[in-house]
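Revision sheet: structure tokens.
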Amino acid sequence: MNWKKLNQNDREEGLTMRKRGGRKRATGTRAPTAIPQGPNQRWSLGFASDSLSDGRRFRVLCVIDDFSRDCLACVVDT
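Predicted:
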């Protein structure tokens, strides 16, 4: 039974169905991200992954300072 026939049967029986929500839209205007004016004001985190020649995979977590573009830390794990 399709949804139109189901809704028709529910209306005939006097049942109430909860209406589904619509698409969520962004409200207001977005504020631009602030550009860091010095080191250690904003950091970025990111994962990089690769595989070794024997097939084992590893991931690297990189912590980068957005102002100076320096790599503050790299944590490697398999």
